[in-house]
Write a structure and sequence with these properties.
265 residues, D-Maltodextrin-Binding Protein, domain 2, 2 domains, 5-stranded mixed beta sheet, 11 strands
Length: 265
């Protein structure tokens, strides 16, 4: 049987899950590395069968996809890796250069700042963009590096803002497969779902092993990675489902989503 083509986010935030997927050494999985926007496109265009996907992009294409309701990447508060770096406080920002790598973070920022702030896709370095825009939206390791390097005088953590607004977790990514793959390879997707659940349990049982492995792969010290990982969660339970549902309804209100899909049980 041809291996299941699985997208792998090449950022620190998803490493606890992918570390254990790698450790499983399942010959039925073939990984392709990329950032969320690339992997979203890979699933939708057919070069990937399944991946962690931006939650807003899943919702926009839910009629073509099947949700694997066992895993996510979520945060109940500050997350560090979804940041607006700005020359003025966020409430005074009127223009933002937004990352091309994450649809969810852009939709979340639109919910938080309203319709009047101008967004343009970031196409130069963040420092260059700050000469032309009030702020820059960065995600993943770029955001962590910006915090480390003091990129701008003001920083706004979107996870923290979301929690203050709603009191709910923010679900940045979900796992989804193409609907045709769900029809033709249900056993392979069931096996992947089992591996994702197992990865969460293994990480929860021994987080330090993952911290040390991540410190060898990413340009951050173990103490920082340990604290960063403590902000993230990878399940898809009742709280995450409620947070995602609220996010999608607010995204619809903000003009970022046409229809809110029904989430699979």
């Amino acid at each position: 049987m041809t291996p299941l083509r699985v997208g792998r986010i090449v950022a620190l935030n998803m490493y606890p899950i992918y570390h254990h997927l790698e450790q499983a050494r399942d010959p039925g999985l073939a990984f392709t590395d990329g950032l969320p926007a690339e992997l979203n496109a890979g699933v939708l265009e057919g070069s990937l069968d399944v991946s962690a996907m931006s939650s807003i992009e899943y919702a926009r294409n839910a009629d073509r996809l099947m949700l694997l309701p066992v895993a996510s990447i979520s945060a109940a508060g500050a997350v560090d890796s979804i940041q607006v770096f700005s020359r003025v406080p966020l409430d005074e920002v009127r223009s933002v250069a937004v990352t091309p790598h994450s649809a969810t973070s852009v939709a979340l920022l639109r919910i938080l700042v309203g319709p009047d702030v101008r967004f343009e896709v970031l196409d130069v370095s963040a420092r260059e963009a700050l000469d032309r825009f009030d702020g820059v939206l960065l995600i993943a390791d770029e955001a962590l590096g910006g915090l480390r390097d003091g990129l701008a005088p003001h920083t706004t953590d979107l996870g923290e803002r979301w929690e203050a607004l709603t009191g709910l977790p923010m679900v940045f990514a979900v796992w989804a497969a193409r609907a045709d793959v769900a029809r033709t390879r249900p056993d392979a997707l069931a096996e992947l779902s089992t591996l994702l659940t197992d990865a969460q349990e293994r990480y929860a049982g021994d987080p330090e092993t993952v911290v040390q492995a991540a410190a060898e792969r990413f340009p951050f010290p173990a103490a920082y990675i340990r604290e960063y990982f403590s902000r993230l969660s990878y399940g898809f339970g009742r709280g995450e489902r409620a947070g995602l549902t609220r996010f999608l309804h607010l995204a619809q209100d903000a003009g970022e989503l046409a229809t809110v899909p029904r989430l699979a049980a």
